[in-house]
Amino acid sequence: MGRRMRSIGLGVALVLAGVAGGFHLRAQAPAAGAQAQTPAPPAPADTAALRAQYEQWRKDFKTWGKWGTDDNKGASNLITPQKVRSAVGLVRNGIVVSLAPPMPQVAAADVNANGLFRRTTNNITDGGTTDNYQVSYHGQTVAHMDTWCHFFENGMMYNGVPVKDNITPETGCKKGSVMNWKDGIATRAVLYDMVQLKGGDWVDPTTPIRRADLEAWEKKSGVKAGPGDVVLLYIGRWKRRAAVGPWTGQVAGYYPDTIPWMHERMPAFIGHDFNIDWNPRPGWEGMRNPIHVAVLNWMGINIVECLDLEQAVATARKLNRYEFLMTFAPLPVEGGTGSPVNPIAIF
User: Fold this and answer.
1) Is 194 left (phi over 0), alpha (psi -120 to 50) or beta?
2) Could you say which of 97, 111, 119, 331 would form a disulfide bridge with 345 (CB–CB 3.0 to 4.6 Å)?
């Protein structure tokens, strides 16, 4: 699955701190109460063809230079003032819902030692107290956004920015850092309820989500994602975790045949209630997180993942409305490759 990039925890009093770390899904020793892993499925019949297509898409789907050679925001440029006003118009009921799970403070199969959120309460006096927060947020549990400083190909970041000249341990990321989103995101979110589409309480973790699934849901729900939107893929991750316990190494994530769909729709963010890449990936050995690479490095589409969509899904089903205003903002961390977030859906 490739190497896990080094994560660096930053402790900051009274402020949640983000870390420029890396993440690759791989099997871990199961924690107490974790579900036993099942054998990896065989490679799908279309794997060889998609591997070949992937190499062609690497050339065809790059948007480098689309918004200028000095661009820092990629597909987020599509969140125009007109787009924001249109998204605000989706607010009809005044229902406000968080899309983030609680910060993980107990180790589990999907929460390794580096991924634990550490809260330190300082001296408690008659007049009050303070606390410090430390978190390595790139992982499987903390709701977070990724910028295109997070994934590279051949020493190059999105828009042809050389990693060598752009990132150092001392300063972090220059171009493409999380500071480009410090004013916040407010745009239309479109919920893709794969659980309702497929039936049951959750999607089996070994089931990749294909383009046909996304298009079937669009036909069923009557809404579809477009430029500058946030796509929210719901597989029932947290409902399943509550029922059967935490697990790792298996994700019903976006399958590679969704990459042309992403390029056609050009959302600002691709979202998920787990990691966005399907896993395991038989037949794709030696290639790290193909979806991460495609969106972050080729297309300048950012990622918001490990969301808790349960309350939003319940609300959307009740109202029979699968588009709504979504807003969030990263911590303004100079040089950061992303940030923990608490996105808000407003119906």
Assistant:
1) alpha
2) 97
